[in-house]
Design a protein that fits this description.
This protein has 569 residues and is an alpha/beta fold. The protein has 4 domains: 9-149, P-loop containing nucleotide triphosphate hydrolases (Rossmann fold); 167-359, 3-Layer(aba) Sandwich (Rossmann fold); 364-470, Arc Repressor Mutant, subunit A, CATH 1.10.10.10; 497-565, HRDC domain (DNA polymerase, domain 1, Orthogonal Bundle), CATH 1.10.150. Strands 6-11-10-7-9-8 form a 6-stranded parallel sheet, sandwiched between helices. Helix 12 runs antiparallel to helix 13, helix 17 (391-399) crosses helix 19 (425-437) and helix 22 crosses helix 24 (525-534). It is globular and about 85 Å long. The model is unreliable at 480-487 (pLDDT under 50). The protein binds zinc ion.
């Protein structure tokens, strides 16, 4: 099931219905407290055991479990390996085992946790307890690996649609990434919570600082920060409204924040799986959200370099390269992004009307001659001069630029000098990028020099055509899309209801702070909007609003009615 699709319900409901305690295995120790808080706010008896608890708290949780007074008990996988915890579970009544984030058992995946491999012991030690494994990872190869490693081969396999209709996918050419990001945040996501992903720790720090300097509250998150800072930043992101988290992919798994309005990538993700997982953290509440990626030639060069220099055998590098190629194909497609994304996971769909290629269809053009000119430049540099250069020098030659470097190498004497003036520099960069994506050109070595491939020969020998994508003049904006998207629209607030909503938000922020829980644990934005719009005057009327359950009505109902009434005089 995709992120936000309701995976937890698949074990939470059985946990309530079945006798005994459901044991939930989760790798996300830092999030257990929030998960348990959210369940308790709904009136569920939940608790957790992990290394962060002191002795007395631990004993108290164990006693509650043994007394049969827990519906759900969260455990870290490493805890299960300890004899003490195993004996504890032996003495209690277990309703089921739920293995969350089950793709952590996959050794090829980027979230591999060695402790997950030991989870096959569950059915050896407790053979009669049912088990369920859950993941938001979509490829069937990962599913098969999960089943094998957890010894669930005979189990039934359920796959939901991976479509997230409220997320608008946009992939734009990277020109001035900081400026582009700032423009996106200011024009479409002012005051919104969101995540900005960068490849390196250094760029995380720089971008976070850049946003703060420009008046946008932002925090950094990467594996180089000490554990305390990471935990503090994560906690602030979850608890406060409108913060931007700038992070490496170390951040995000299991983050249950429903109102993340955008996920922006400033660097190319390594795989379509990664892109899908990361963008999936936007819009868990079902409201319109943006997945925005800026992508350029340098990304391709950098990623290829990383693969060439990576540890592991040839098969591993081939695997990485195949992942990158699929990601590049998604970036360069002239078809609907969503159709291509879902097709990657083996699901068929129709053009969505809520991605950039649907909203502003790019043209495709016959780039055969342009490709021949570029490849010929690379060929001549190599053959006539025994030289290899990167994209910039090749483009300068095509454009007939008399730079110092051109003069130094006498590249103005090459027959290809100045034969490419029909395209601009940025258009040439797009040609290089797309030839790389199509495997008709390669980058090599430390300096990312251009080299020909097997496929190049077919182009140079005029045996094949090259179709290229031309960027649309005007990029679509979220506003244009909202009208056409199939996403649930947020409740539109009347001028009278808007201040009521703000008052409710202020009440929620104060209550969340007082109770030490994230604001969304109290109520989601969508629920507060609905309350502001309907302005119920009784608890009965309030109870009909989606998101106001029995437990929350009892706990907060009166306060909500008072908050509503407080503005009427
Ligand atoms: Zn589309």
């Amino acid at each position: 099931m995709p992120t936000g699709g309701g995976k937890s319900l698949c074990y939470q409901i059985p946990a309530l219905v079945r006798d005994g305690t459901a044991v939930v295995i989760s790798p996300l120790i830092a999030l257990m407290q929030d998960q348990v808080d959210a369940l308790r706010a709904l009136g569920t008896r939940a608790d957790f055991l992990n290394s962060t608890l002191d002795f007395d708290t631990r004993r108290a949780v164990e006693a509650t479990f043994l007394a049969g007074d827990l519906d759900l008990l969260y455990l870290a996988p490493e805890a299960l390996g300890t004899p003490g915890v195993q004996r504890l579970l032996d003495r209690g009544n277990i309703a089921l085992f739920a293995i969350d984030e089950a793709h952590c058992v996959s050794q090829w995946g980027h979230d591999f946790r060695p402790d997950y491999l030991a989870l096959s012991m569950l059915h050896e030690r407790w053979p009669s307890v049912p088990r369920i494994a859950l993941t938001a990872t979509a490829t069937s190869a990962t599913h098969a690996e999960i089943a094998t490693r957890l010894q669930l081969e005979g189990a039934r396999h359920f796959v939901a649609s991976f479509d997230r209709p409220n997320i608008q996918y946009r992939i734009v050419p990277k020109n001035e990434p900081r400026k582009q990001l700032l423009h996106l945040l200011r024009t479409e996501h002012a005051g919104d919570a969101g995540i900005v992903y960068c490849l390196s720790r250094a760029s995380v720090e720089k971008i976070a600082e850049f946003l703060v300097d420009n008046g946008i509250p932002a925090l950094p998150y990467h594996a180089g920060l000490d554990a305390r800072t990471r935990a503090a930043n994560q906690s602030r992101f979850l608890r406060e409204d409108g913060l931007v988290m700038v992070a490496t992919i170390a951040f995000g798994m299991g983050i249950d924040k429903p109102d993340v309005r955008f996920v922006a990538h400033l660097d190319l993700p390594k795989s379509v799986e990664g892109y899908y997982q990361e963008t999936g953290r936007a819009g868990r509440d079902g409201l319109p959200s943006t997945a925005w990626l800026a992508y350029g030639l340098q990304d391709v060069v950098q990623q290829r370099k990383l693969i060439d220099g990576s540890d592991g055998d040839l098969a591993h590098r081939r695997n990485l390269a195949a992942h990158l190629d699929a990601m590049l194909a998604l970036c360069e497609t002239v078809e609907c992004r969503r159709v291509q994304l879902l097709a990657y996971f083996g699901q068929e769909s129709k053009p969505c009307g809520n991605c950039d290629t649907c909203l502003a269809p790019p043209e495709s053009w016959d780039g055969t001659i342009a490709a021949q000119k570029l490849l010929s430049t690379v060929l001549r540099l190599h053959r006539e001069r025994n030289q290899r250069f990167g994209a910039t020098q090749s483009i300068d030659i095509l454009l007939g630029k008399r730079t110092d470097k051109v003069a130094q190498h006498r590249h103005d004497q090459l027959s290809v000098f100045g034969i490419g003036t029909e395209l601009s520099e940025s258009e040439w960069r797009a040609v290089v990028r797309q030839l790389l994506a199509q495997g008709l050109l390669a980058v090599e070595g430390e300096y990312g020099t251009l080299a020909l491939t097997e496929g190049s020969k077919g182009v140079l020998g005029r045996q094949r055509e090259v179709k290229l994508r031309r960027e649309p003049e005007r990029a679509p904006t979220a506003r244009a899309a909202k009208a056409r998207s199939g996403a649930a629209a947020p409740v539109q607030l009347s001028p009278e209801a808007a201040p009521v909503f703000e008052r409710l938000r202020a009440w929620r922020a104060a209550t969340a702070k007082e109770q030490g829980v994230p604001a969304y644990v109290i109520f989601h934005d969508a629920t507060l909007r609905q309350i502001a719009a309907e302005a119920p005057r009784t608890l009965t009327a309030l109870s009909t609003i989606s998101g106001v359950g029995e437990a929350k009505l009892a706990k907060f109902g009166q306060q909500i009615l008072e908050t509503l009434a407080s503005g009427e005089d």
